[in-house]
Amino acid sequence: MSKTIKTSNGYIGKNYLLMDIHNNQKKIAVINDLTGFGRCSVAVAMPVISKMKIQCCWLPTAILSNQTGFPSYFMDDYTKHFTEYADEWKKLHLQFQGIETGFLGSTEQARLVRHFIRDFRRDDTIVLVDPVMGDNGHIYPSYDEEHCNAIRKLVRMATIITPNLTEACILTNTPYHDAPWSETEFQQLLDKLSALGPKKIVITGIPCGDDILDLSYVDGQMKMHKLPRIGGSRNGTGDLFASIIIADAVNGVDFQESVVKASSFIRACITRSIEMGIPATDGVAFEELLDQLH
After folding, report:
1. CA 221 → CA 217, 281, 290, distances in Å?
2. Residue 35, CB half-sphere, CA atoms under 13 Å: how many?
3. Cα-Cα-Cα-Cα dihedral sign, residues 132, 135, 140, 144
4. Could you count the other beta carbons within 10 Å of the beta carbon of residue 270?
5. Mean pLDDT by 10 residues, the chain (294 residues)
6. What residues contact residue 39 under an 8 Å CB cut-off, 6+ apart?
7. Does pTM top 0.85 for this prediction?
């Protein structure tokens, strides 16, 4: 349908389709929790994606006062509102060049996200799944086998996935062990992940002596990216990494270049956070260095 549309600046024109008026800028839909304090999830994704000149549209899976690593927190599960929230976006005919998913607290949420991707995905839509399932060789207590299988189904719909080593093992039913891993073991693990469906993979944050290793994988080829380790693990760095990767992908940046960029930026943010005395629970002070992203 087309018609004349009057705006505060005048008329847009009779031949301008109503369904296109909200799609004049690149957009990424971020499906994750909205946490007020702790620098994670949507609170990280929105400023990063926006700084990289893409509109960030968020769909909350839960609303939290602060991240769950603190002794206490308030949380309101948003699962019951997911469908009606997404339905309003359908009415607006929103089109997304990217869809990013983070922590999903239930099998039902994973199912709803799969439906969202089917409804909104177009030929040019990049889907990044960060399969937040565990760390340090341990699966999170909220996960059971049904939940893990639901995440595997979601991974099959992804263009890019960004698991840590624990999550990569869970997804592929590979026994986890501490370092060292051989290059052959890493290649086999990445091949198994690729067989699930995603074209591009990054396994993030692998301890490797005095370094931190990220493994990237495109077209069957593995590359290793090492940086000197600084400080311990910090909340929200996975969300920061994933948001840079998908924004770069939407902007047409080379994948390997993007992995190096994201890793280097996070290390710089950790360094700055240590200098400022920011507790690990509070994430990284990426705001201090946000101007460096483009």
Report:
1. 5, 35, 31
2. 24
3. positive
4. 24
5. 43 53 95 97 97 98 95 96 97 97 96 98 97 93 94 98 97 93 96 97 92 94 92 91 98 96 96 96 97 92
6. 67, 235, 236, 282, 283, 284, 285, 286
7. yes
Distances from the Cα of 187 to the Cαs of 167, 191, 194, 227, in angstroms? 16, 6, 10, 20
Q: Which amino acid is at 247?
A: A
Give the DSSP per-residue string, 213-248. Answer: EEEEEETTEEEEEEEE--S---TTHHHHHHHHHHHH
Amino acid making up residue 114: R
194: part of which helix (H) or strand (E)?
helix 183-195
Amino acid at 291: D
Token pair 């990569």 in the structure block, residue: 168
- What residue type is assigned to position 138 of the chain? H
